[in-house]
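The material for today's practical consists of a large collection of protein records. Backbone structure tokens are a discrete shorthand for how the chain folds in space. An example says more than a description, so a record of this kind follows:
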Amino acid sequence: MTVTVAAVSIEGVTKRFGSVVAVDAIDLAIADGEFFAMLGPSGCGKTTTLRMIAGLEFPTEGSLKIFGEEVGTLPPNRRPVNTVFQNYALFPHMNVLDNVSFGLRMQGTDKRDANKQAREMIDLVRLDGMEKRKPNQLSGGQQQRVALARALVNKPKVLLLDEPLGALDLKLRQDMQYELKSLQRELGVSFVFVTHDQEEALTMSDRIAVMHDGKLLQVGTAEELYDQPVNRFVADFIGQTNLIDATVIDDEMIALANGTKLRAPNPYSAGTKVAMSLRPESISIGHVGDVPAEFEPTSLTGTVADMNYLGHSHVYTVNVDWMPLEVRTAATPTSVRFEPGSEVAIWWDRRSDWVVPDEGHGL
């Protein structure tokens, strides 16, 4: 039987800075050839974890392996990884070719061979013809490609990317998301990508790790995190959702704050405080009395407080008895439009809600 060795294996890793626990006993395995994102707000521990993989920080406790080799105490130059930083860290006095070939030449590679490999990598990131330009003659996206080429030319087994798109404007960032994913697929190298941008992580990654306060909360595909979050934080951080406080009645029913009982299958015992995560796009809106019979057990009535047209959708804020809910509907020429003040009914398929433990409000 073939045993698959993880590209990166982290077991019980903790990192302390004095009395501050930046990373708290996390376990993580990143597969060979995987595009893996580490997602979370500032200060959650994701960059510290990346720096430990890179060798720029050492774990206080735990094991860190790259393709089965323990590297937790090895310096960066003895690890089969390379890192692309947000500021690109290009040498301003060197042209593109010299920047890309620099690492090879530092390893003792013959100049002609180093330049040959560098040109191949420059072609791969679609910068051919720009070899003689200096960094200040390049756009932000072009500088980022130079940084990628320089990191990849040494053929690392794992490429680490620390918010590399953060300095780009929205359109260029979206273009580079696609290009990064295409490049990763072509090369087959494991990418470990740190970001606080949910859309980036959801768009690009095979799997995502969500971190908060140094803890690893959930690892899964974009669909798993979005549809089946493990707790209130993950539900609130991934995409947009309505979190409705409730109390479990039994494994099929919950009671909302105003006493309304709704069908919501859940694994929690009676009396448990929970929150129901209800995504805006899963909610339908219509006139009171128009609720299809099959949705009656998951329907509420309320008043439209606000409506915004976004081109591809209408976004309504509907006030029910105890809280405002956001409703997102497809915008079509025949869509019924509800103005603020309209009395409406909202309903959803039971399969689209998800009950999570109530772990406090906010982030």
Summary: The chain is about 25% helix and 35% strand. The longest helix spans residues 170-187.
